[in-house]
Amino acid sequence: VVPSSDPLDFGLLREGQAAEMMLVLNDVTGKPLNIGKVVAKSRMKVFTSVNDCVPKNESCKNVKVAYPPMNLLGTTGGTLEIELPSYKQNLVVRFGAIGIGKNTQIRSLEEDFKAAQEESKSISSVLQSSVTKTTEKAKAPATMSTPDGTGPLLKWQVTNEYDIYGYEIYRSVAETGPYSRVNDKILERLDGDPEAGSIYQWRDSSAESGNTYWYYINIVYNKGRKQQFTSPQKIVAK
Predict the structure, then answer these.
(1) 153/231 same-domain check
(2) For the chain, how far is it from start to end, CA to CA, in angstroms?
(3) Residues 6+ away with beta carbon under 8 Å from 15
(4) At which of 84, 100, 116 does a domain end?
(5) 86 φ, ψ to 5°?
(6) Taking each helix axis from N to C terminus, what angle separates 125-137 and 109-118, rounded to the nearest 10 degrees?
(7) What is the DSSP letter of 134?
(8) Cα–Cα–Cα angle for 83, 217, 225, rounded to 5 degrees
């Protein structure tokens, strides 16, 4: 049984902010996936629920993990112990977030480095060299250009594309489906560093203005295995 993410990273949560994420579980053998108890072990009490994937697939389940309003500062997280009765064992997935104050300022190291480079007259040659080397080491994700047209524009980012061949886009007029693939060909992975990830953009030129659609993205791996990457998202075509 393969989780869509481990750890499940909620990122930065300000004091009083709540958040939820979806963990997609797939049984790669294709057998029906049975989920028993889901126990969250954490300093903060989080809430979980198990739902069918959309479109429904017997070998796929969604585990929704919800953080209540953040009341802790610093790193907070824990583990999900997911019971798999068919395999008589538990799957352990990590999750976490960083709690910050309501008025905490967030600064970009990349912008600080850039400012430091521009102020070369007030920085020593040794420090200037260090800043330049650090900036060169940062790996920027490959970015797809914005497609022409006026249909719904889908954007998504993948942080690590190891062993990924490409992506499929599925669409329906209802959240519960049925869904069908709307990109004629698999959208191949951008030619960049797989560890740096990529940012994708795809436009649905076949959508009719004024209609409401639901979309989700599928990952296609090099050996042909497919995995649901996103939960269905609602978009109104303009």
Answers:
(1) yes
(2) 40
(3) 70, 71, 73, 99, 100, 101, 102
(4) 100
(5) -65, -30
(6) 140
(7) H
(8) 65
Whole-number percent of the chain with pLDDT over 90: 48
- Domain residues for 29? 2-100
Q: What local confidence, expressed as pLDDT, does residue 33 receive? A: 94
Contacts of 237 (CB under 8 A, 6+ apart): 151, 152, 204, 207, 208, 209, 210, 211, 212, 213
Mean pLDDT of the chain: 86
Which 8-state DSSP code applies to residue 177? -
Q: How many residues does the chain have?
A: 238
What is the mean pLDDT of the segment spanning 114-124? 58
> Going by C-beta distance under 8 Å and a sequence separation of 6 or more, which residues neighbour residue 176?
54, 55
pTM confidence score = 0.48
Strand partners, 100: 14
